[in-house]
Specification:
Elements lengths: L2 E5 L5 H18 L9 H13 L3 E8 L2 E9 L5 E3 L3 E2 L8 H15 L4 E7 L3 H9 L3 E10 L11 E4 L5 H12 L4 H10 L3 E5 L2 E6 L8 E3 L2 H10 L8 E4 L3 H9 L3 E12 L7 E3 L5
Parallel strand pairs: 4-6
Antiparallel strand pairs: 1-2, 2-3, 3-4, 3-5, 6-13, 7-12, 7-13, 8-9, 9-10, 10-11, 11-14
Helix pairs in contact: 1-2
The structure holds coenzyme A (COA).
The site of coenzyme A has 22 residues, from helix 1, strand 5, helix 3, strand 6 and helix 4.
Length: 285
């Protein structure tokens, strides 16, 4: 196959979104797991956002002028996040995914990102093997958790929408827990009106960009995260991602009727500090 690669543009959204939908649907159906993108318009919407947002770099693969796959790099914060990567089911396992990964890693390196991360579905042996071969370290087993909104509050923990004035406190908290901020993602989430903060004794002790597959959260303690989860109106996408080794938080969720949908794995290259606090990663990291 003569395959070429180039940076994606807005007009690629339909083709990339269709391949993304088909590739993710095929692997999920084969293992009887829920689809990551429940409908074509969802994957087209995600790719369209990434192809037009200046904080994302998208690379596409073409054969005879026809798109056969794409990959994206989230460049909005200090650590870069990869995904979604998808190859047309007819040309998988032929090296296209490896080359699309190599290209975003090269981009991250040339832009000086100290670390690159991703989250993969634990049931997908090929993606696990590919990322491990490329140098990614498995860092954290994750549980994707879904269920009805808890519609409850936790005494002493006040949750409210985040505003621009909260950014500094949230970023300081993120830095204390992770050793880096996610300032770019958080700024977008505040602008979109999805971010929340939890306050204890009048100070910010946790925040969530949104409690969802695509969102992340940080708290000084599990109680702070519980307050944010308890106040969430819904858990968007397949579910929110919870570090499985945080058994107390997992048990708290399970005790309130939430269910584990699937296991996933956080993988990293470069800068990584063992988190010093409670957190929920997003599907990019
Ligand atoms: C995952 C995906 C992007 C990989 O792309 P691809 O073009 O199929 O993969 P490649 O051929 O480039 O690389 C696969 C590598 O894994 C290896 N591999 C595959 N299955 C393996 C297994 N079970 N054990 C060990 N190695 C395995 C292959 O030998 C190859 O290694 P190599 O590059 O050293 O030769 C693609 O299959 C896809 O789109 N899947 C559906 C969507 C998806 O799951 N995306 C990833 C979400 S995390």
């Amino acid at each position: 196959m003569a395959i070429t690669f180039r940076q994606g543009v807005a007009a690629d959204a339909a083709a990339c979104g269709r391949i993304c939908f088909e590739a993710f649907a095929q692997i999920a159906d084969a293992h009887n797991f829920p689809r990551e993108f429940p409908a074509l318009e969802v994957s087209v919407g995600v790719l369209s956002m990434m192809l037009t947002h200046p904080g994302y770099y998208v690379v596409v693969a073409e054969r005879d002028g026809e798109i056969i796959g794409s990959n994206a790099l989230d460049e909005r914060s200090l650590i870069a996040g990869i995904g979604p990567i998808s190859i047309s089911p007819t040309v998988q396992d032929c090296g296209v995914g490896r080359e699309l990964m190599r290209r975003v890693l090269e981009r991250a390196h040339s832009r000086g990102f100290p670390g690159v991360r991703l989250v993969q579905a634990a049931y997908h042996n090929r993606s696990l093997a590919l990322y491990a071969k490329l140098g990614f370290e498995p860092r954290e087993p994750l549980s994707c958790v879904q269920g009805s909104a808890l519609n409850t509050t936790i005494a002493g923990y006040a949750v409210r929408p985040a505003v621009e004035g909260d950014l500094e406190a949230c970023n300081q908290l993120g830095f204390r827990v992770h050793g880096h901020t996610r300032a770019g993602d958080l700024r977008d989430a505040v602008a979109h009106g999805t971010a929340t903060v939890v306050e204890r004794d009048g100070r910010v002790t946790g925040y969530a960009s949104v409690i969802a597959f695509y969102g992340h959260a940080v708290g000084e303690t599990n109680d702070d995260l519980q307050a944010l989860i308890a106040a969430a109106p819904a858990f968007g996408g397949p579910g929110f991602l919870l570090p499985t080794r945080n058994g107390n938080l997992l048990r708290w969720c399970l005790g309130r009727g939430l269910r584990v949908v699937q296991a996933m794995t956080l993988m990293t290259i470069g800068l990584y500090n063992e988190p010093r606090g409670a957190y929920l990663p997003s599907v990019s990291y």
